[in-house]
Amino acid sequence: MPSLDFNSIFMVLAIVLVFILILKLIFGSIKKILGLLINSILGAVLLIIVNTIGTSFGITVGINFITAVIAGVFGIPGVIFLVIFQNFL
Hints:
Shape: rod-shaped
Structural class: mainly alpha
Helix content: over 70%
InterPro entries: BofA (IPR010001)
Protein name: Pro-sigmaK processing inhibitor BofA
Pfam families: BofA
Keywords: Membrane, Transmembrane, Transmembrane helix
Organism: Clostridium tarantellae
């Protein structure tokens, strides 16, 4: 049976710590990407709803790259900001 010296124990601990850090980075990034994806979908749906229903009330938001990015990153609060900014200011 091989004996474990200090260097072997240190290497095993270092590998385990690096593995844990890599897993944390991967799953932390996936969580952020998933949140951004959900915000993007909600923002796009809300922009379409605002434009569909809002035309009856004279409230529209032009859908272009900038408004899509704002709605995608900020979600529902971003769409509310766009409506207020474009129609009331």
